[in-house]
Amino acid sequence: MDVGCGRDLNFFKAILKRFPRVGALVGIDKDPSVSQTAHVKNKRIWCYVANIVKRETLTVFEGMMDKVISTNTVNKIPKKKLMFENVYRLLRPGGEAAFFFILDSCYHTFLMALLKIPKFKEIFKGRHNPNMYPKHRREQYYKKMLEEVGFHYVISLEEEKIYPHPSEEDWKDELYEGYKNMFEVSPESVDEIKEEAFQIYVKTIGRYEGEPYYRVLLLSLFGQKEV
Ligand SMILES: C[S@@+](CC[C@H](N)C(=O)[O-])C[C@H]1O[C@@H](n2cnc3c(N)ncnc32)[C@H](O)[C@@H]1O
């Protein structure tokens, strides 16, 4: 099962390639449009609407899963322990779970810096949780959480990834594309906002070997349910 599978079903494509004899793949996502639009071309793939923090939407799958994975979704869920508890319930005895998610991102730091500037704060129309990536919630914090839930043989791996961007102009455009829906930007101020946002980004995040860059801290977590 893939929790928060999203439309592209990338995980299932990878699993089918690597394990062509896999029995069945179940994708769940809380967004109903995912199961409506997900491109399911294989009869062993099933997509359902379910919310991993609402147990009543999951009962049909409880105790059924050999493996559960979730990528890029844990960081979207405020009630993480509840999510892990529900994943634990989905597993059969001896079943395994793996999670991959963001622990911190320089985009968060950048947005916090932008919102300290009155000009940007005034035109902000998005939603943002300033406490999204608390500094004390790192590898050991989540490892302990999984153990408290009941998982055995918990393994965790924290890694920082750095992606330098060779073209400043492309980076300005990408930053703008990533954030434009969060701000009310009039057409005549696009260039000015783009330039200012880029300058704030570089001032806040810095450069890597002379180039602007994206930095993200990622966690892989693995655990097994008792046999
Ligand atoms: C960033 S996407 C990741 C998609 C895919 N796993 C990937 O790595 O490409 C996060 C997905 O998690 C889903 N999601 C968020 N909260 C969820 C919840 N509580 N229960 C189930 N799905 C959830 C979203 O609807 C979205 O499709």
From TrEMBL:
GO MF term list: S-adenosylmethionine-dependent methyltransferase activity
Superkingdom of source: Eukaryota
InterPro entries noted in UniProt: Methyltransf_11 (IPR013216), SAM-dependent_MTases_sf (IPR029063)
Sequence ranges assigned to domain Methyltransferase type in this UniProt record: 2-98
One matching Pfam family: Methyltransf_11
Name this protein carries in UniProt: Methyltransferase type 11 domain-containing protein
Source organism: Nephila pilipes
